Amino acid sequence: MFRFRKAGLSAVLLSLAALTSAQAAPAFSGIGRDATPKEVAAWDIDVRPDFKGLPPGSGTVAKGQDIWEAKCAQCHGFFGESGEVFSPLIGGIQPKDMETGHVANLVTPGFPARTTFMKVATISTVWDFINRAMPWNAPKTLSTDDVYATLAFMLNIAGIVPENFVLSDKTIQDVQKRMPNRNGMTTDHTLWPGKEFGGAKKPDTSNVACMKDCAPEPKVASLLPEFARNAHGNLAEQNRPVGAQHGVDTTRPEAKVGEKPGVSTAVKPLAEKATTGAEAGKPDSKKATALLQKNGCTVCHGISNKIVGPAFTDVGKKYAGKADYLAGKIKSGGVGIWGDIPMPPQTLNDADIKVIATWLAAGAGK
Ligand code: HEC
Ligand code: HEC
Q: Under a CB-based contact definition with an 8 Å cutoff, are residues 307 and 300 in contact?
């Protein structure tokens, strides 16, 4: 909480600084600095329903298929049909929906499934989400053209565009006119019970404050049902870093003149010195688990539960004492030992791999 409050405060200070620098007589000086155009651009990535903010670019269905198979299919399935890691993205749409702009299966009794493309009304939302958040284990790594291509492929397997379609900042307008649920978004409904169940007619969004004879104040609470606990691994281990971080890497010695700060190669970084425990063959669970989180391993592996990949404690049991084998496998990735889902090659440095492999080979304990 404290960290958020601090971030909020410096954002206010930054905008105050920007405000005052635009005026003639600055009321504050020496506080903060203007955000650089690059910093602003890194945050200003939203794409609106009228396509304001959409960067120019394009991509084909064929190219999108290659990207999909390499970077998306392991979690969403080859046809976007998988419910393994998240709800299915594709399915449930019929050709007629493209004419009406309403997805019939949303109100068909006996069709309980809900997929992304059944629900979403604006294609800009999907473009924006892939661009900012996917792939889940490496957000913001796709180029603009890659986002167009991947989305073109998704639209094709959803039956919305043909195989030879090229999605671009121009053609996306035509896609919007075909979005199966484009007329399905409404704020004129109650959440529960819905209109179709004879529920209250008053929409959620236009409430009038009660001034007398009011019902007792409702108690708002939230809980995680027992069955959902750990269904997707330990959420506490899955906080992702967002965007590039500016500043000096304080785990490393100060750079010499002419070197990039914090990435000096002339002196051995402190972070790697700290691995001597592992170099001597001793497991360091604190360091290993921090590395797992930093490198996104916990997106796919739980410490003691299977997610997409096996539980680390199971890996530890299977390969007790075999740190070298494990180090090799982390680097190369592989498939077929624990199931049909491949593990992509991992790109962390050898010292860090060694810390993880040593800890795994010792049983992946606390
Ligand atoms: C490591 C697993 C993983 C990979 C790889 C992955 N995703 Fe996802 N995807 C998820 C999860 C989990 C969510 C739900 C995230 C959330 O709600 O915050 C999600 C959500 C989405 C959604 C939004 C669905 C909705 O209804 O809200 C889209 C679209 C999507 N992914 C597309 C992609 C694309 C395109 C790729 C490849 C470039 C990709 N994903 C790669 C796990 C993954
Ligand atoms: C996108 C998902 C994903 C990510 C990210 C991921 N793994 Fe895996 N990992 C898998 C899957 C799936 C398997 C099972 C592969 C198989 O069946 O051969 C696996 C298997 C393994 C194995 C066992 C290999 C064997 O030969 O039995 C180790 C060790 C491992 N992963 C370590 C890691 C480490 C360390 C990281 C992070 C640096 C990591 N993984 C990141 C999905 C992933």
A: yes
Whether 71 lines ligand 1, by a CB cut-off of 6 Å, is: yes
Contacts of 332 (CB under 8 A, 6+ apart): 345
And the tokens for 291? 């590395």
Cα–Cα dist 69/317, whole Å: 31
Residue 137 Cβ contacting ligand 1 at under 6 Å: yes
Report CA torsion sign: 83, 84, 90, 91. negative
User: CB of 17 within 8 A of CB of 32?
Assistant: yes
Number of C-beta neighbours around residue 322 at 10 A: 15
Say if ligand 1 is within 6 A of residue 63 CB: no
- For 216, the token pair is 């007792």
Q: What are phi and psi of 256, to 5 degrees?
A: -80, 165
Find the 218 Cα to ligand 1 centroid distance in Å.
35
Residue 237 CA, ligand 1 centroid: distance in Å: 18
Q: How far apart are CA 76 and CA 72, in angstroms?
A: 6
pLDDT in tens, the chain (366 residues): 334 444 444 444 444 444 444 445 566 777 888 899 999 988 999 999 999 999 999 999 999 999 999 999 999 999 998 888 888 999 999 999 999 999 999 988 878 788 999 999 999 999 999 999 999 999 999 999 999 999 999 999 999 999 999 999 999 999 999 999 999 987 666 666 666 666 656 666 666 788 999 888 888 887 777 777 777 777 666 654 444 444 555 565 555 555 544 443 333 333 433 334 444 568 889 999 999 988 888 888 999 988 889 999 999 999 998 999 999 999 988 888 998 888 888 888 999 999 999 999 999 988
The contacts of residue 5 (CB under 8 Å, 6+ apart) are none
Burial call 181-191: b when 16+ CB within 10 Å, e when fewer: bbebeeeebee
Q: Burial of 35 by CB count in 10 Å (0-12 exposed, 13-18 middle, 19+ buried)?
A: middle
Q: Which atom of ligand 2 is nearest to the CA of 75?
A: 1
